[in-house]
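Annual report, structural modelling task.

Input specification for the zinc ion complex:
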Amino acid sequence: MKNNKQIILGIESSCDETSVGIVADGHELLANVITSQINSHRRFGGVVPEVASRHHVEYIDYCIEQAMKNADLKFSDLDGIAATYGPGLAGCLMVGLTAGKMLAARLDLPFYGVNHMAGHIYSAAINHEIKFPALALLVSGGHTEFVYLKDELSFEILGTTLDDAVGEAYDKIGRLIGFNYPAGKTIDQAAQKGELTYDLPRPMLYTHDLNFSFSGIKTAVRELVEKEKRQDTLNVNNLAASFQNAVVDVLTAKTKKALEQVDVQELIIGGGVAANSLLKSRMTELISNDFPDCQLTIPPARLCGDNGAMVAAFGSVLAKHQEVSDLTLDSNPSLSFRTA
Ligand code: KG4
Ligand code: ZN
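The model returned the following structure:
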């Protein structure tokens, strides 16, 4: 039911999840339908863009209808439509963006083009009021970056990965040890059963900048796995634990450095890897020991991965500031906060 709230429908199709979420007044989650295509990509060990686009075409209408049904709304109850226009896979972005623009045109509603990474940050706004200035650590399959938000609509990148994204490192290592794609959650679960028996590098741990590099850990793991397999001594759980510990050591140390450099009221961790159990416990420890005045917000796991609700949440912020997009808006596969 509408009840005079501002209701935004958000569409996400940048990679391998077709999802539609509906958010009221920027914070209240009314629906979040997520259809994953993972089974279609699994045998290829990664996302196949053409297969992904076709899935989006097949599922987008279903997701919109189901989200409206779950939220118990009529189309006339909506106040705006938001859709991701980048970054992501070109053909995939096109499907959700076109659906969003068409829906907005058909219903004569304002349309809001959403930066996927801003969506990951604003997943923290669901059931929560973000305090500014804020710092976001974005950790996903395609990105690892620190973003400083002076206020709601200002995004400044303070550091980024120089090579692989952290989720990408998880997925590549998963492949080496025979885990299905995407491997983040499986490695996280295996790590909880393992011990820290393998010594791995922690790249850029002691550099003063806020950049990351994960390809060194990946290469070290590859060499280790090859050696251990030759000797038939590979302990997968211990490897997962040692790898996860190295990655989280770097993420935590860099976050400490970032929080020493910028004065913020809130730290948001967003993106698929934000669902990681060790990352959550180590960040909680860091904040309570060293930055007790800073609030830590990590969205629940279902909102960490790609979803339409985060798009609706950021769409609500754009609506509040009347940042309406033109219906000629094109997708931008390499959209960044630097180029937006
Ligand atoms: O944000 P997301 O859903 O998609 C992108 O925008 O990339 O992130 C997906 C990534 C994958 O690399 C996946 O392996 C990783 O998030 N991931 C995790 C966990 N759950 C998902 N990585 C570590 N621990 C997890 N629990
Ligand atoms: Zn994402």
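The first helix runs from residue 38 to 42.
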